[in-house]
Input
Amino acid sequence: MVSSYFKYSLPPTSFIIKLRGVLDSRNGETLIGADTNGHSLSWHCESANARGKLVEEMVDDCGLVTHNKQSNLKTYERPGMGASNVDVTFTTVDISHRVKEWRVADETDSDHRLLIFKLSGVTKQKSTDRLRFNVKLANWDVFRLELGRECLACAGDLHERAARLTSAIIAASKKAIPVKSQAPLDHRGGIKSLTRLGVSFSMPDESVA
Output
């Protein structure tokens, strides 16, 4: 999994070079979530711009698959700043068939909306009772520090990284957030709560920014 942010105030070429380097170092099976800050008809913008065309060239050269679908909701919208589809989901072609039901959802307070999809072939864990944390009393400085330490061990293939990142989030939460109760917890709800409070997650060794 790769998280990529193409900072608007800088030329996109530097980020493209970094992302190419990550792709060259991997043997396929790569999922990319990118804030391209570029417009392209390939990800259903109303028009294309120079930044988007440069990203398009990289996508074609690297043989990536774009999973964005036409939607009434834009991936980005801010009052006074407009709306656009700058957030894009890419995969290498070898796992492109595993991305299902891609959609945009307006479920957070962020000006960047959620991109939701299913990734087939991932083994579903047995339902168990999970801790619920009181995020209102969280020490986010401790959380970020502990999560960074835990993520240093997040290596391996796509499935291993997903499992280890989940474990890292839980371990960091136990050290930084008071436990509210013991009850079944939908992991999407937990991530959603953290997102609303401005906490973001990335894999340190694969993040491109």
User: Anything to note?
Assistant: The chain has five helices and ten strands.
